[in-house]
């Protein structure tokens, strides 16, 4: 049986929660979707579903996080009719930061 909510012992500063917590939150507040961040996802964003209904999206905006993940970042915008769209931020090459720093020092 899935626990409702537990502390994240790996990070020591957050909580892990499951589908039941999300569903209860959505129903209590009459929301359709929870948007969260601060977790690397391979494609910049990731939806989680309950059947055919999307209930949660994780958005992570830091491309090539810590120089280790080669992930794109993403920015989510929501239209007036509540449709979510994503702009992907592609990772730069491994020397891009060095070039930017060098250009900044010489100009």
TrEMBL record:
Recorded superkingdom: Eukaryota
GO cellular component terms listed in the entry, alphabetical order: cytoplasm; nucleus
GO molecular function, one term: protein serine/threonine phosphatase activity
InterPro entries: Metallo-depent_PP-like, PP1_catalytic_subunit, Ser/Thr-sp_prot-phosphatase
Protein name: Serine/threonine specific protein phosphatases domain-containing protein
Gene source species: Aspergillus turcosus
């Amino acid at each position: 049986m899935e626990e409702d909510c537990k502390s994240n012992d790996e990070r020591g500063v957050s909580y892990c929660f499951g589908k039941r917590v999300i569903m209860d939150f959505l129903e209590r507040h009459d929301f359709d979707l929870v948007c969260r961040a601060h977790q690397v996802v391979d494609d910049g964003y990731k939806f989680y579903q309950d059947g055919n209904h999307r209930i949660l999206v994780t958005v992570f905006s830091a491309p090539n996080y810590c120089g280790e993940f080669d992930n794109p970042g993403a920015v989510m915008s929501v239209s007036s009719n509540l449709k979510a769209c994503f702009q992907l931020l592609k990772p730069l090459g491994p020397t891009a930061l060095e070039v930017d720093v060098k250009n900044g020092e010489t100009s």
